[in-house]
Amino acid sequence: MEAIHVIRRPLLTEKGTGLNEHNQYVFEVDNRARKPQIKAAIEELYKVRVVGVNTMVCRTRNRMTRYGLTPAKISKKAIVTLRDGDAIELF
């Protein structure tokens, strides 16, 4: 899987921007991506050194539409810890 397909987008939330102080960044990644692939993709796209990757699968609640219940959307988030001195400019 290519790096551009592994990383979907950075997640800019209040909690995520608070993690930036600890040199951690939050990204939405492809559901099939594994930790080594995420690490390689971040290092290739942003030219930084990654120390650690933590992943979590997030599931939204089922939605009621006029056609009945629609299945929950499943997404995967990755919290990426960078080496001291490295930073990613998200803005």
Description:
The strands form two sheets. Strands 1-2-6-3 form a four-stranded antiparallel β-sheet. A two-stranded antiparallel ribbon has the order 4-5. The chain has one domain (3-82): RRM (RNA recognition motif) domain (Alpha-Beta Plaits, 2-Layer Sandwich), CATH 3.30.70. It contains three helices and six strands. With 91 residues, it is α+β, with helices and mostly antiparallel strands.
Topology, element by element:
Blueprint: H1 3-6, E1 7-10, H2 14-19, E2 24-29, H3 35-46, E3 50-59, E4 63-65, E5 68-70, E6 74-82
Antiparallel strand pairs: 1-2, 2-6, 3-6, 4-5
Helix amount: 10-25%
N-end to C-end Cα span = 26 Å
Cross-sheet strand order for the largest sheet? 1-2-6-3
Number of domains: 1
CATH topology name, in short, is Alpha-Beta Plaits
Residue-averaged pLDDT, rounded?
93
Reading off the top of the CATH hierarchy, the class is best stated as Alpha Beta
CATH H-tier superfamily: RRM (RNA recognition motif) domain
Structural class: alpha+beta
The radius of gyration is: 15 Å
The number of helices is 3
* Low-confidence segments: none
Shape: elongated
